[in-house]
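Lecture 7 notes: from sequence to structure.

We start with a single chain of 232 residues. Read the sequence below before looking at the structure.
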Amino acid sequence: MRAVSVHVATMRNMTSRKLDAAPKEPSRRQLWVELARTEILDATERLLRKMPFSELNVTIVMAHTRLSRSSFYEYFKDLHEVLVMLTGRVVQEMATLTREVDARAPSAEDRIGYLAALREKYLISCRLHRRHRHLYRALVEAANSDAAAARVLEDYLETMTQGAMENLKNVQKAGGAVGLNVRETARAMILMTEGYILEKLCRGHAADLEQVTDIMLMILDRVCFGQVPPPR
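Now the structure, written as tokens:
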């Protein structure tokens, strides 16, 4: 009986600790802060569809919310921080969608299937860049003068580079991309494709998404599975 009593007491203590460790409901203040931040974020994104980031200021943004101008600084340090959060939402959306493709993609030994999966990922990227072109333009512009925006842009490019490196390593395991410097080739490909997307889909919006996707895929196919001249 004593052993049972001890066991029951132990279970009660464990249950109590679990209940104590359970996440607490957000306070009314926290909910209000989240709603206010979201309202500022959404207002900024709407304005960036109409005007460049360089012409935006706190007064303009707050005039398009139900909040006072001075309250902006309760939620954000400056507009660059707002831009960083906006672009972060898009990057997260892209990561979620491309992970779903990766989960069902075949190995690089199946060249046709592998390229089909990469094409799907390219198309996701192109669609998101076009839909949020105002944010991508603003981020590139802000990166020239703001360290936080520059870090976000570089982190995004590095994330894309790591993905390209993984693709090249998979292709090399399947016997392709022979003799390539994986890191430098991946970086060069990302800088090239991001510049191409910026020109075709962000600064201009008349380009055909499918055509842009297929051109990038054709270059990738040649690099990964085509004949590469030996280094001199």
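Confidence is low (pLDDT under 50) at residues 1-12. Keep this in mind for problem set 3.
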